Predict the structure.
Amino acid sequence: MRVGVVAEQLRHGVPGGIGTYASGLLRGLGALDDHDLDVVALASRPTGADALSAIGVAVESTRWPHRMQMALWDRGIGRPSEAIDLLHRTSLAGPPAKPGTASTVMVHDLGWRRYPELTTARGRRWHEAALRRTISSSAHLIVPSAVIAADLEDAGAASERIHVIPEGADHLAQPDLEAAARLRQELGVGDAFVLTVSTLEPRKNLEALVAAHAEASERAAVPPLLIVGPSGWGDVAVADTDRVVLAGPATAGVLSALYATCALFAYAPVHEGFGLPPLEAMAQGAPVLVSTAVPSMLGAPTVATVDAGSVAAITEGILSALADVEALDSATLAGQEHAERSRWVDVAAEHVALWRRLV
């Protein structure tokens, strides 16, 4: 069985969660002992460093760079030239399948429908048009959680076309403790810190987390909040101070080290399709506080689960989590065990099992 996997997000300057899914899936497929499986990654022409080359799979690049190729795919132009049995799009973006070719699409979330005010008008228009094209096609739809499966049914997709496959968490680099220590020194952050990791955009609810951290700091000796991640869109009013430090994006090894050494990982988004950062944090032994809007943490051993819409609830969660050292230690061990069960090779195996049923 020859499968084409659209890996276009890895041509993007900021691959984000979709890029993590694409690279994790490709690496998982490569780790399978399946001699009847042949995988080719499909993407636009590389214009700089090629993240796909490090994954170790065959790559078919188009003649067009990223932005132009995306625009052509939106118009149904640019089907894969490779002879493939199944096309898998790792997001709503990508080429249409050739007539008669089986296809699957990963739908990460429908956040623009749930919270239109947290998405740009342009983003809403693009996602809605892409979703309508996808639902009207014959593609089967893979989602990372039951929450998104229900959203897709509400959008008009038949339940028999929807398949829930959670994501993996064993993709992290080895912690680079020395580089992380240097970064913290440059930023003026000591050994104790609260960490959050996300793109700076409204959906991530950073303003509420910052407000809760400030309230908690007025009531107890709470370590500073370190925010790691690239700038996104929207007016996210987070000031860089001695109590709230904006680090920007971090290298893979530094991120792993920050997860491994933080006093608490706090993540309180308004909406997530899955939510990789807290699962990544658990994999590195961080105690985790999350909002109830994070499907990856359902049933997970968090130290606190809070309402994203309540600054008071987030405040109390931070204070109670940091005050109970025994609970933090227990959550660290249980969290690592929980995250170790989320392996990309198992995610890949579930994809392949579905693909074989469709081909």
The two ends are 8 Å apart (CA to CA). The chain has a mean pLDDT of 92.
